[in-house]
Amino acid sequence: MEKDLIAEISARSDTFSKSHKKIADYIVKHYDKAAFITASKLGKVVGVSESTVVRFAVELGFGGYPKLQKALRELIRNKLTSVQRMEIIKTHIDEQNVLKSVLLSDMEKLKQTGEELDKDAFDGAVSTILNAENIYIIGARSCYSIANFLGFYLNLIFPNVKIISTNSASETFEQIYRIGENDVVVAISFPRYSRRTINALKYAHEKKSSIVAITDSQNSPITENASYTLTARCDMSTFVDSLVAPLSIINALIVALVIERKEEVGKTLSELEDIWDEYEVYEKYIK
């Protein structure tokens, strides 16, 4: 229903009451904004009551306004441009208290991620990474930062970690063309999904590599060939991508892998501490 929702609303426009037609017209023209405002706020914008907005959602066949809103969000998940995201910040953030608004929003995403994460998929991902001959990590654009974070720590646990650069399509494939069936790719992608990441995973699947996908939904394009999918809530409705929940999943992966390899990691860190001291890698702070 989600793909045809706007078309359906438009087609049924003549059958709606005057109040419902106001709501329908707004959603058809501004569905990117309607997806992120409350029923009360939508009612005020078009000049109807909150209960009228709720009844409109029910008339469309939804269990309530939140269900309609969810369908709209799914519809635009990968379509919001940066400009559109800037425009709807006001509907999502209390400009008088930006810090509190953002912190509360991130806390809610963490809570929802914890409630929805598939533990069996998480355990399977840990086992797959542990048994891989080579570990490839890929994340493009804003996801590149947390891909590097994961790579930094996995390099302390395993000798066979490769962080894939996505600066160009050719460069990406040059780094993964030796990938094989005993290897694993950990792919990180959130809306708007990177085509380079998607294409790299298609190649990895053709080479029979295992794939661990860290993304926002089972409907994400990077889950198509994934061995395991770890979903984390993100926020596609503001200019800055909220990657707090994905980073938390990555932290959990790192901790789980360290627990499984604690003896090897302990030895590695002990040797590295000697090297860091010898070459004064860290500032020796004395209070």
Automatic annotation (TrEMBL):
It comes from the Bacteria. CDD domains: SIS_RpiR (cd05013). It comes from Qingrenia yutianensis. PROSITE patterns: HTH_RPIR, SIS. One of its GO terms (molecular function) is carbohydrate derivative binding. Residues 125-264 form the SIS domain. GO terms for biological process: carbohydrate derivative metabolic process. Residues 3-79 form the HTH rpiR-type domain. Keywords: DNA-binding, Transcription, Transcription regulation. This is MurR/RpiR family transcriptional regulator. InterPro entries: Homeodomain-like_sf, HTH_RpiR, RpiR-like, RpiR-like_SIS, SIS_dom, SIS_dom_sf, WH-like_DNA-bd_sf.
